[in-house]
Fold:
Amino acid sequence: ELYCCFLVGTRLAAAERQRPNIEVPTEDSGKAAALANQLAALSRRVDPKQAKLLADFTYATVTRLRQEYRTFGTPIFNNFLVYHGLRKRGYCYQWTEDLLVALDTLKLKTLELHWGDAYRDTWRENNCLVVTAKGQPFDRGMILECWRHFGHLRWNFVLSDEDRYYENTKWAHRVRTRAAASKASRTNHGVALQMRVVPGGKSGD
Structure:
């Protein structure tokens, strides 16, 4: 019995460590609640608890990234700082990459995350995440975008956005593969790797 209790306690402790740290800023709590309601309304198949978890964790993660990026000036000026190495991250695709990797840790069952591109392979390219109910078409999803409002979350439906976003499954796969490899490397070697990667094919917006 003692052995069984030890195993259960160990597993519970591991589960506690894996739970995301969610601290939604007070000024964003109402917005997070509104986003959760919209996500839950995507389909009757969406679990409202998962919708709330995703909304809260998104706002908490964006706040954390804004602090880590040390954004300054305007989005365009901050791009200038990143380009010249004065900031490590802050391009639109970097916001989207880091948000995708963070939200993937939630392992949601009734919601799915997609990568969206607008004006792909042009100087105007902008990237975002799109959340859909599981199995739902990309075009019926909700945009989560951070760059345009300088690290403050913007969300609205794909079809109502002023820009036309298209799904990019290859880039989503590439980001997830790189994140998995980085996690495995840290686990195997116990070394914190620098996460700054500037892949080809993405513009500096």
Observations:
- Confidence is low (pLDDT under 50) at residues 2-17, 190-200.
- The chain has six helices and five strands.
